Sequence to fold (143 residues):
Amino acid sequence: MFNNKNEIINLIGAKTNDPINKILSKNILAILCADRKQLGVFKTMLVSDIRERVVAMKQFDLGNTREQQDLNIRIELYKLRNKGCVDFEDYRKNRYTVKSNLKGLDYCKTLMINEVIDEGLTKEQKQSITIIEDKELWVEVTY
Fold:
């Protein structure tokens, strides 16, 4: 797909200025925030593991090849990093893991609530939305 690494870096850099894909970002953050043990402790994941989970959801057209899918996930992750919602942790040369942070958790909750509201709730339902956090169920939106 790409001849060298600089082409990929340039493409990611150009695309990070595009608007965030809210549904994709919500799902990525939900994956990164799921099953956290306590507030502020988030799991780290490889980009390939995140890609596999997102592709398994079958909600997005990320491309036909692993390279295209990987590129689209990385672009969205860089957008989230620029927004301060995820952190990259280097573990080897040119290799990194990704983890959410508290801002990412808050942004994920906001995206989830916005998605529910966008689906069309009555005024009364909008006013009665509550978020319940639990160690077993990481986030539940009730209305």
